[in-house]
Automatic annotation (TrEMBL):
<dbReference type="InterPro" id="IPR013457">
    <property type="entry name" value="Rhamnose_iso-rel"/>
</dbReference>
<dbReference type="InterPro" id="IPR009308">
    <property type="entry name" value="Rhamnose_isomerase"/>
</dbReference>
<dbReference type="Pfam" id="PF06134">
    <property type="entry name" value="RhaA"/>
</dbReference>
<dbReference type="InterPro" id="IPR036237">
    <property type="entry name" value="Xyl_isomerase-like_sf"/>
</dbReference>
<dbReference type="GO" id="GO:0019324">
    <property type="term" value="P:L-lyxose metabolic process"/>
</dbReference>
<keyword id="KW-0479">Metal-binding</keyword>
<keyword id="KW-0963">Cytoplasm</keyword>
<keyword id="KW-0684">Rhamnose metabolism</keyword>
<dbReference type="GO" id="GO:0019301">
    <property type="term" value="P:rhamnose catabolic process"/>
</dbReference>
<keyword id="KW-0464">Manganese</keyword>
<dbReference type="InterPro" id="IPR050337">
    <property type="entry name" value="L-rhamnose_isomerase"/>
</dbReference>
<dbReference type="GO" id="GO:0008740">
    <property type="term" value="F:L-rhamnose isomerase activity"/>
</dbReference>
<dbReference type="GO" id="GO:0030145">
    <property type="term" value="F:manganese ion binding"/>
</dbReference>
<protein>
    <submittedName>
        <fullName>L-rhamnose isomerase/sugar isomerase</fullName>
    </submittedName>
</protein>
<keyword id="KW-0413">Isomerase</keyword>
Length: 393
């Protein structure tokens, strides 16, 4: 079976022309597990240097022009200056991530806490993040809550949902007209009996109650094993409520390894749903972000590899002959339809992507080009005393 009668190269060129991936500031700092953080030479000492490293990813891929920040990990005195620094480097500030998971006050919850004073503190932190958005030009406020329970009976499941709805409403009301709220879910951790936003359904219900500018974030590592993630993607797209991805790979859960490393076929299936809905186009406003840590591999190269992995999955999805697929589906041609998908998935798109990079004046192989640039050796020599990602950075 042939994949298509169309010009497949043109389909990939057009589809990828404006497709971008947002990179996280925390990917460039030292990281590890709760057992050990491995220090790497040359890691950034401040948010300015994180942006410099992120700009390298954009320089070699031509497809990573935004950088997410995490507050307070990336707190600086002058966010206008940080945004100007980003612009000088050819990138911009992307989503602003709040952080309510490292403060003693939030042991029993932040936006869901039974104590109104603690809820007010957590809301105030989000208002601070909104100020950062205004200073940096960011349009996306991203919330992931660590809130949850370890023991049945510890608190009322329903009351916590009511408190959450009220806190979110206050945050939503504080945002500007052109701001979006991105609400992330995760089925376990740091609490194990019940998380307050464990799944996409809970996130979606809160978004629907808030208003049009509230959308769901799908972190690919935040599901139980064998969850059909592309189904969730399709459902959220139907509702116009898929705001963003946090891409990473999981072997178990929330491993935060490089996207496309553990299960490239799953990434392809996700991207097939995206392309079917034309959600790879900027007009869809789905923000394709990475949420990863590179514990044992070099960080800038790990980020470049990840952007390439996402691009490869999108390119393969763009190879699917949608018209032929629709006909096979309507005709009940089970094997024909499945074959169209598998033909696209099994196509090696690396040559096409290399050609497209050359057309844009980039080098064919971004990782080889970065390795040859000497940047890694330079930062290792220049930067002494780099920080851990997040904690302490
Ligand atoms: C939580 C999470 C969330 C945080 C990030 C550091 O597990 O995925 O997105 O902001 O990790
Ligand atoms: Mn995440
Ligand atoms: Mn996570």
């Amino acid at each position: 079976m042939t994949t298509t009668a169309r010009d497949p190269i043109a389909a990939v060129r057009e589809g990828l022309a404006e497709f971008t991936v947002e990179v996280p500031s925390w990917a460039y700092g030292n990281s590890g597990t709760r057992f050990k953080v491995f220090a790497q030479p040359g890691v950034p000492r401040d948010p300015y240097e994180k942006l410099a490293d992120a700009a390298q990813v954009n320089a070699y891929t031509g497809a990573a022009p935004r950088v997410s920040l995490h507050i307070p990990w990336d707190l600086v005195d002058d966010f206008g200056k940080l945004a100007a620094h980003a612009a000088d480097l050819g990138v911009s500030i992307g989503a602003i991530n709040s952080n309510v998971f490292q403060d003693d006050a939030y042991m029993l919850g932040s936006l869901t806490n039974a104590d109104p004073a603690i809820r007010a503190k957590a809301v105030a932190h989000h208002v601070q993040c909104i100020e950062v958005m205004r200073a940096t030009g960011s349009k996306d406020l991203k919330l992931w809550l660590p809130d949850g329970l370890n023991y049945p009976g510890q608190d009322s499941l329903r009351d916590r949902q009511e408190r959450l709805a009220d806190s979110l409403q206050q945050i939503y009301a504080a945002m500007d007209e052109d701001h979006r709220l991105l609400l992330e879910y995760k089925f376990f951790e740091p609490y194990f009996y019940a998380m307050d936003i464990p799944d996409w359904g809970t996130s979606l219900l809160h978004c629907l109650a808030l208003g049009e500018r509230a959308t769901v974030v799908l972190d690919t590592g935040h599901h139980a094993p064998n969850t059909n993630i592309e189904f969730i993607v399709a459902q959220l797209l139907r509702q116009g409520r898929l705001g963003a991805f946090d891409f990473n790979s999981r072997f178990y859960a929330d491993d935060d390894l490089m996207v496309g490393a553990a299960d490239p076929f799953q990434l392809f299936r996700i991207m097939h749903e995206i392309v079917e809905a034309d959600a790879h186009l900027p007009s869809s406003r789905v923000n394709f972000m990475l949420d990863q840590c590179h514990n044992i591999e070099p960080k800038v190269q790990g980020q470049i590899r990840s952007v390439l992995n996402v691009q490869e999955a999108v390119a393969k999805a763009l190879l699917v002959d949608r018209e032929a697929l629709r006909q096979a589906q309507l005709a009940g041609d089970v094997l024909g339809a499945n074959g169209l998908l598998m033909d696209a998935y099994n196509t090696d798109v690396r040559g096409i992507l290399g050609d497209l990079r050359e057309e844009k004046g980039l080098q064919r192989d971004p990782i080889a080009a970065y390795r040859a640039s000497g940047y890694q050796e330079r930062i290792a020599a220049e930067r002494v005393g780099g920080h851990q990602a997040g904690w302490g950075a």
